[in-house]
Specification:
26% helix, 17% strand, binds 2-acetamido-2-deoxy-beta-D-glucopyranose, alpha/beta
Length: 819
Amino acid sequence: MGFAQTFSFAVALLARAQRGGAEAPVSFRYGCTDGHRQFSFCDTQLPLERRVEDLISRLTLDEKPQLLEARFSPLGNISRLGVPQYDWGGNCIHGVQSRCGTGTRNDTRCPTPFPNPNHLGAAFNESVWHGMGRVIGRELRSLWRQGVGENHPPTELPPIGLDCWSPNINIVRDPRWGRNMETPGEDPLLNGRFGVAVTQGLQQGEDSKYLQAVVTLKHFVANSLEGTWPGPGGPPSYPGRGLCPGGQCTRHTIDPNISAYDLASSYFPAFRASVVEGGALGVMCSYNSVNGVPSCANKWLLGQKLRKEWGFKGYVTGDSGAVKDIFTHHFFVPSMEDAVREAVEAGTDVQSGPWPSGRPWSVVGAYQTMIPKLVRSGNLSEEALDVALRHTLTLRFRLGLFDPPEQQAYEHVSPDVVRSEEHVAAAVEAADQGLVLLQNRDSTLPITGGVVAVIGPHATARFDLLGNYLGQTCPKLDDGGKEQFSCIESIEEAFRNLTGSVVYAPGLPNVTSNETGLFASAVEVAKKADHVVLALGLDTGSVEMEGQDRKSTALPPGQVALFDAVRAAGRPLTVVLLNGGIVSMSHVKEHADAIVEAWYPGFFGARAIAKAVLGHTNRWGKLPVTVYDESYQDQVDMLDFGMTKSPGRTYRYFTGEPLWPFGFGLSYTTFSLKLATSSEVRVAQAGGKAVIKVQVTNTGPRDGDEVVMAFFTPRAGTVPAGSRAALLRRQMFGFRRVSLRPSETAEVEFEVEAEKLALVADSGDRVSFAGAYDMNLTNGAGVSQSATAMVVATQGETQPYVYEPWAPRAVQAEQALVV
Ligand SMILES: *[C@@H]1O[C@H](CO)[C@@H](O)[C@H](O)[C@H]1NC(C)=O
Ligand SMILES: *[C@@H]1O[C@H](CO)[C@@H](O)[C@H](O)[C@H]1NC(C)=O
Ligand SMILES: *[C@@H]1O[C@H](CO)[C@@H](O)[C@H](O)[C@H]1NC(C)=O
Ligand SMILES: *[C@@H]1O[C@H](CO)[C@@H](O)[C@H](O)[C@H]1NC(C)=O
Ligand SMILES: *[C@@H]1O[C@H](CO)[C@@H](O)[C@H](O)[C@H]1NC(C)=O
Ligand SMILES: *[C@@H]1O[C@H](CO)[C@@H](O)[C@H](O)[C@H]1NC(C)=O
Ligand SMILES: *[C@@H]1O[C@H](CO)[C@@H](O)[C@H](O)[C@H]1NC(C)=O
Ligand SMILES: *[C@@H]1O[C@H](CO)[C@@H](O)[C@H](O)[C@H]1NC(C)=O
Ligand SMILES: *[C@@H]1O[C@H](CO)[C@@H](O)[C@H](O)[C@H]1NC(C)=O
């Protein structure tokens, strides 16, 4: 089927969808339907492996790569075998990124939007993350069944599939990275817990036999820069040399050297946890190289680490254009054919992105045009191709796509699950839990009466609440941009709806403007009010975004000027900040009465902000990132991916004074912590476990949520002096969120396992060092309890005890990956 046909197919379905109760024909979605049941691969009595092999054996060499191209026509429609098209490559970073579906009452039902992942990270609540995964998985099933298209310009993208290119679990390495909003935070443990929870919620649904949907963890590995930064790379030609061949550092060209220590302790753990514990069945290899090898051509990364050592059983896709980058940006190989060969041999099962470049999505992809030639000329073994088919087809079978649909629970998912009351409630709950109260002098908040002035460039923002990777948000789609966000409540409207006495002024036309022309009216409005709420921050349309890092972390100067002008009105002043990457704001911290960090809080975000500021809720979260001051960006090199070099990156290594530390966050009530078990636990180095319990009491006047975080620090002498691990200041090893009424106490437990206290040796081995570890159980805001863990050497064990060796020497030498 040609591209035009794919498009008209989608349009036809959309038209049908508008008539209500739409459903894409079963034969467009399932194999082994009418007239095609005679093949062995359709025999549900046979073991899955045999069915997959049977199907592979029936495909011709030219047909095979058609099943391995994401988003390309003809999307693997092999009609002679009754194998329908399948589109790899939908997204669902915080909701399904598709167009709206149609409910049984012919109502337009758009995917349920959650807050951005940095807001979700701040909730420190695994139920929120698991719940989002579950909502996304169910809605994906329903929208796929309706044949709804991806929500992505150009509009011609195909109907969404059942895999999601999500979650993004790269750590926040640098505050300037343009995609910080997409990922839960800077801590490998936090990102790992997020990855595990989202994976399990999304993949495992109500039908225990079939997968509900499939995650695709991204971006493997160390995707942490967008660009453009000047770099010292060699000439843009084969063989590529230096940090960024061509001298322009972007996510496509960057080739950082990363030590085995940093890979094993910072860049890998969230992926490892999501695969080993979460059972994630998809991974996306990143655009960048690491230590001289592009991720999608990296046999060690995709073969040795991911599959052999972590036991990964799913599929790998290249990021869109990443296979091309092996040749055109890294100059790792002399031709595009070689890039394709390298990618397939390394284990990049699916390729996305057009070749030649610059053409629309509809063009046939490089796998399809080049793989048959490579195999016929003997330059690529057909077996390497079959391996990729095995990885991808196995998942399609496990999704039930070659079994009779009528027996499958997911085929009966109603179109009314999409943005159902239950799903909306989950998203509202999430929005309530991720706001962080950074400052509250003299109990400025909550505002309990009087006139509220809502001022600032974000006061009436709708789109700017949403962040990036958006499904269709409002039922209307057709007026070139504005109308499609008109159903979103702005911050000003939310206050108006909840209090009735609101005055408003914009103050600035946008977040980067330096115009002072609107200041006077903003000051006038402030003077009419008893409280001022100033909505400031960044946006994903001009400041930080995919493909664009910030050059400065400072609050844009025009906003600082507006802040000062409004402050002069002398009213209690609360700053509400929208942002992905953190905002350095020393001046605001010094002079604001209250500060609310709202991230990009999403569709239900304005309401969550108003409820919290007005004291209808008291469910604050904690910072999942360190807020550095303005000088930090001059002390760290954007191109340096090392974590430990002074002044250090993230709370784990940073030796300076942050504006606010990781884990910080206030509440309207107060809490106390009390150890309920002995302050010293002993655990055997090889697999030992103990439990510490802490009582959390709400000692203040109001209901409230609290997060208790458990950190450890190896005591001096436990870790070899001079090793990189000796630079680790603290590491979180657990967290628990609780909701308590006044005077109520809850007991929370933390498992102290020797493996959780494991560190990484300079060799890259993950090991347990015998010795003392100081533990700190804290609410991140000054309330804490200390304890000690003694990790005891097991008799006869060598010191240190190795939990996970780095890699066999031979592989290390071959790919020169140890630096
Ligand atoms: C369904 O709704 C669309 C517009 O939303 C309308 O054009 C169409 O007539 C409706 N169909 C039925 C069967 O009610
Ligand atoms: C697959 O191709 C066949 C033959 O060209 C066509 O009849 C069918 O509609 C296509 N299926 C889809 C889902 O486009
Ligand atoms: C990375 O390591 C390689 C091999 O040791 C070395 O040639 C190269 O200069 C290093 N690159 C950077 C940017 O340090
Ligand atoms: C196969 O490899 C040979 C030798 O490296 C080369 O001359 C030829 O062009 C390659 N063919 C293809 C299709 O890549
Ligand atoms: C809030 O107020 C606006 C108008 O100010 C109104 O259009 C909207 O429906 C209200 N939203 C809710 C959720 O009540
Ligand atoms: C506002 O001023 C700053 C600092 O002088 C400058 O970098 C920025 O480009 C200005 N913004 C606009 C929109 O001109
Ligand atoms: C913001 O406003 C300024 C005028 O102060 C204008 O020059 C600039 O283009 C605007 N930026 C955006 C992204 O609209
Ligand atoms: C954690 O999140 C779930 C789901 O949103 C919610 O029901 C629960 O109350 C939250 N826990 C706390 C302590 O806030
Ligand atoms: C524990 O951490 C908190 C902040 O995270 C800090 O205020 C406190 O001093 C620490 N306690 C100990 C005993 O180190």
